[in-house]
Amino acid sequence: MDAAATLFVYGTLKRGERNHRLLADQPFLGPATTAPRYRVVDLGPYPGLVCDELQGLAVQGELFAVSECCLAELDDFEGVPGPFVRERIEIDGRGDVWAYFMNTPVPQGASTGDRWPLPAA
Q1: What is stated as this protein's family in its record (predicted)?
Q2: 87 catalytic, yes or no?
Q3: Does the predicted TM-score (pTM) go above 0.90?
């Protein structure tokens, strides 16, 4: 495997979710929680991630060690740069790793929380 990067996933790329096949051959590093400065936005069939310095939450997700080749394929899958961008995110106890952030405005009335799918109200 070529040099690995650490990637934080919070939505359809997580284990058991519909797009996990794109990461299935990459090493799972374990569950992870971000610093409390982010929010997951429910976009219906998938989530987005945004920074929220004022009312941010500690977002729940998973870490994977991904090859550079896999990261390039995921960038293409996520439409980077476009509706999503890959940027650094602070993970408790791990420092900064990669994550995919929304690159569009949050839709008015969209639900947000600390995980996806969002818990039932």
Answers
A1: Belongs to the gamma-glutamylcyclotransferase family.
A2: no
A3: yes
